[in-house]
Amino acid sequence: MIRVVLPAPLRQLAHVDGEVCVAVREPITQRHVLDAVEASYPMLRGTIRDQGTQQRRAFVRFFACEEDLSHESPDAPLPDDVARGREPLLVVGAIAGG
């Protein structure tokens, strides 16, 4: 099981507290994790990535094992600690303003 930490507004939308755990087919990639999250929580479709292009939303970032994975290929393997369930994939809402 892959652990995913969602930002508070998405946890509220999905009616979950804390982390979510999803079964993900190999290879363990951002794309496969997000596919599993959206399959388990269909109300999140379109909130993390665009439904048409599958591109990450502009104000969403991905982190794991103290690394910013936001600009990595969605098909790149996630760190081994995430794949083994030792560390979560963090979905973080970026803050912007002036």
Describe the structure.
This protein is an alpha+beta fold and about 100 residues long. It has one domain: Beta-grasp domain (Ubiquitin-like (UB roll)). The chain contains 3 helices and 5 strands, in the order βαβαββαβ. A 5-stranded mixed beta sheet has the order 2-1-5-3-4, covered by helices on one side. A hairpin with a 2-residue loop joins strand 3 and strand 4. The longest helix has 11 residues. It is globular. It starts with a strand and ends in a 5-residue tail after the last strand.
Q: How many structural domains are formed by the residues?
A: 1
Give the termini distance in whole angstroms: 39 Å
CA-based shape = globular
Biggest sheet statistics? 5 strands, mixed
Helical stretch tally:
3
Quickly give the structural class. Answer: alpha+beta
The CATH superfamily appears as Beta-grasp domain
Strand runs, count: 5
Physical arrangement of strands within the biggest beta sheet: 2-1-5-3-4
Low-pLDDT windows of residues: none
CATH class: Alpha Beta
Radius of gyration: 12 Å
Instruction: Give the helices and strands as they follow along the chain.
Output: EHEHEEHE
What name is given to the CATH topology? Answer: Ubiquitin-like (UB roll)
Proportion of beta-strand residues: 15-25%
Helix content: 10-25%
Give the averaged pLDDT, no decimals. 94
Per CATH, the architecture is Roll
